Amino acid sequence: YICGSTIITTTHLVTAAHCLYASYGVERNPRELSTVPGMYNIDNFFDSDLQERNIVRFVIHDDYYYEDTGLTDSDIAVMQVDQPIVYNNLVRPICLWNEIDNLEQIVGVKGFVSGWGVTESGEAKYPSYVTATVVDRRSCSRNLEKVIAGSSRLFCADGHGSVPCTGDSGSGLVIKRGSRYFLRGIVSVGQFDPNTLTCARNKYVVYTDVAPLRYWLRKVIKGT
């Protein structure tokens, strides 16, 4: 298990670009990757509900550079699978954000992130979720002790002591609008706590902002 991802069409999923690199900045071979919609117990590959699909290709955003040591506002990629995913009660696509891009409009709004990332008790067998509140750029810069440009295609969210951790990269942050959930963020960067040697729970998590990148997403989907 490497990262999380989110279904956006029957043949496309979106994830974080850094998930598609192995060590030393070498891109992974897409044909060595697979995704398993419908999985619940990560140790059980015999569950009748899961749908294993092989990745045939992926497209990483042109602005993304794995060598970046700082924050990047283009940590996003689209993966294409070899067979259509079958939608059912357990497997559904997410809606792409369809409101304005302005981050200030969602400051203070709570989103949800789910995945099989590391928890306080160790590696997870079953998925869990955290609630994260979107914060403004000034608060983000102060908490991370880094300057976040106003034009950056990323944002921070406060997990209030519970944060996405190792293994949750690439998972989506979704926000409920009416009766539907919309994808607004992708887990990009968490902060390390040298005292506990795990994810810093008092630090914000950085998310790639999907809203200004949704036009790129549609272009990639149309082209593949």
UniProtKB/TrEMBL annotation:
It comes from the Eukaryota. Residues 1-222 form the Peptidase S1 domain. Signal peptide: none annotated. Keywords: Disulfide bond. GO terms for biological process: proteolysis. It holds the Pfam family Trypsin. This is Peptidase S1 domain-containing protein. It comes from Anopheles maculatus. The lineage of its organism: Eukaryota, Metazoa, Ecdysozoa, Arthropoda, Hexapoda.
